[in-house]
Amino acid sequence: MTRSPQAPRPLAAGNWKMNGLLAARTEVEALGRRIAAAPPACDVLICPPATLIRPFAGAWSGQGIAFGGQDCHAAASGAHTGDISAAMIADAGGAYVIIGHSERRAAYGESDAAIAAKAEAALSAGLVAIVCVGETLAERDAGSAIAVVCGQVDASLPPAATPDAVVVAYEPVWAIGTGRTPSSGDIAAMHAAIRERLTARFGAQEGPRFRILYGGSVKPSNAAEILHLANVDGALVGGASLKAADFDAILDAYRG
Length: 256
Ligand code: PGA
What we know:
Layout lengths: L10 E5 L9 H13 L5 E5 L5 H8 L5 E4 L16 H6 L4 E4 L2 H7 L3 H13 L3 E6 L3 H5 L3 H12 L9 E5 L13 H23 L4 E5 L4 H8 L6 E4 L6 H8 L5
Parallel strand pairs: 1-2, 1-8, 2-3, 3-4, 4-5, 5-6, 6-7, 7-8
Helix pairs in contact: 1-10, 7-8, 9-10
Bound molecules: 2-phosphoglycolic acid.
The site of 2-phosphoglycolic acid has 13 residues, from strand 8.
């Protein structure tokens, strides 16, 4: 099954993780030029390190690329050394924030409840929250991937979630940075299950409007196949988003 014409406008999001200094502006510049020359039929987002949101957004917001953070604290301000609030990301020119990435779930023990609280904070600050979910290899091998991921969807999305303010990113933990991806059938089955869950909770009008991204080793060679699957409304791209040429080649999936 392929994407329907009624599907939401896709989002191609780059997650730079802890990579990139100010000099990486040349990559954003190059990407901006390619997008201007051949606009893809999707929204384009880069989530660089927080230090780069202000310079990047100042130079390129409104020119076909949006910018966002990779995490935020659940509180608006306070004694949280080293953390950043959603309002700070918005103040720097960010429009989105990634919440609950599996690297943070694993390294900092972020629970579904903590992630829901962060997403709530993002919404309060006017950011779009990209809430990440995904199973481990052990969970997939045990046959519980769909149950695990649907449980994360239920518990990580805040009550105030709407299709305009929340994006779900399905990222199998074992596919991140490994070059391995699930089969197209497995991706489609997971996205259908997430869609069903969203529709059950938010209704037949709103459920189909949520964007469900796939993430985990998306690259130019597999992007078109993955991104044209039903219920796959974009990608969350790590490694391949660092180079303009690679990220732009992924955007080709959304060019006629
Ligand atoms: P990857 O990372 O594309 O390098 O696998 C994806 C992610 O972690 O968001």
